[in-house]
Amino acid sequence: MGRRSGHPQGDGPGGMSGQGGDRPLTRLAGAGRRPEWTGGVVNPPVWRASTILFDDCADLDAKSSRNRDGELYYGRRGTPTQWALADALTELEPGAAGTMLYPSGVAAVAGALLSVLKPGDELLLVDSCYQPTRAFAQNILAPMGVATRFYDPLVGAGIAELFTDKTRAVFMESPGSLTFEVQDVPAICAAARARGIVTLIDNTWATPLLLPAIALGVDLSIIACTKYIVGHSDVMLGSVTATAPYYKRLRMVAQSLGQHVGPDDAWLALRGLRTLGVRLRQHQEGGLAVAQWLATRPEVARVLHPALPDCPGHDLWRRDFGGASGLFSFVLRDADAAARARLIDGLALFGIGFSWGGYESLALPVDPAPLRSAVRWEAGGPAVRLHIGLEDPADLIADLDAGLRRL
Ligand SMILES: *Cc1c(COP(=O)(O)O)cnc(C)c1O
């Protein structure tokens, strides 16, 4: 849907160069803002469209045969509102060729996997993946003749020993959903590339701002934009950003499946994207304050946060990530599910609900152990996943302090 934009700040090579400045936060402000799409205003308007009118039959013929990004054709192929968002996401991933948008993060995961797999292939899927990704492999890929093997999130370069002649793709998620193990993304990508195997990552937790996945060697980077890109808990949206060898097929598969995102949702996501940098900084600060406080509490057995030294893969997080976001888990000591419910139910500042990445804090009881098949995950107690929003961390800590006393 979008190639790198032609606006002056977006044209330089990824990295630090560029006359106007090309660092990620600067790119965030300018990304996707093509003058031909925005006109004289700062943000692109919401273009609502199904039918798009052609000048004449020759114009219709020419545009049909071209099927080009950034050219009005039919509502399903988007308008400048969706293209601006797709373009912006492409610009945030140095080395990317283009981005496709999807009506949810799950649709993005499905679209990415379907674009690289065919019957007879084998997929290596990280054991700590988001549960619906596991369900997609089992419910849709398996009956299609694509076999999935799950691997230890800490496998690192040892992934090479799992490759067979049928292995076609490795799907990473780092840190892992619920348990937050950090993977050795560059080592896995290098091993895969040496065998011609494609790599995908679910980069929802970090976003390209904290983990430039494609620059680290990943071929397709998936984001549930529902979370931090939108940032306000009011839109469902997903994206896949791909390198040149994979973008064309990704686009063909998305078009064939009729994937489309409404312009109002794309517009809201683009609005959210502009403040991603400052929000993530605050989510990190609040998340770290709460995580470090929890780690000192006798009622807490473990805190699963990539920025804490005892989180599996913490050294990799320090090496590869530009920071942490606001989502992590902790495990209670000497407590049962009823005690955990007393803690969560009485919290005043944390909502109970799925998703995360909005401005508000959330608490969710989680049980990762049954979701594992490659390596056992020993909880040692009931676990809680927290999303730390933009509230004052001191108030959140006071709320949790009262909660721990309810145990
Ligand atoms: C939420 C989530 C998704 C799915 O996104 P939806 O927009 O809810 O479909 C995918 N991956 C991860 C890691 C998520 O947390």
From TrEMBL:
Pathway: Amino-acid biosynthesis; L-methionine biosynthesis via de novo pathway; L-homocysteine from L-cystathionine: step 1/1. It holds the Pfam family Cys_Met_Meta_PP. It comes from the Bacteria. Residues 9-21 have a biased composition (Gly residues). Signal peptide: none annotated. Its cofactor is pyridoxal 5'-phosphate. The keyword Transferase does not apply. Residues 1-40 are annotated as: Disordered. GO terms for molecular function: lyase activity. The keyword Cell cycle does not apply. InterPro entries: Cys/Met-Metab_PyrdxlP-dep_enz, Cys_b_lyase_bac, Cys_met_metab_PP. Its EC number is 4.4.1.8. Keywords: Lyase, Pyridoxal phosphate. It catalyses: an S-substituted L-cysteine + H2O = a thiol + pyruvate + NH4(+). PANTHER family: CYSTATHIONINE BETA-LYASE-RELATED. Belongs to the trans-sulfuration enzymes family. This is Cystathionine beta-lyase. The lineage of its organism: Bacteria, Pseudomonadati, Pseudomonadota, Alphaproteobacteria, Sphingomonadales.
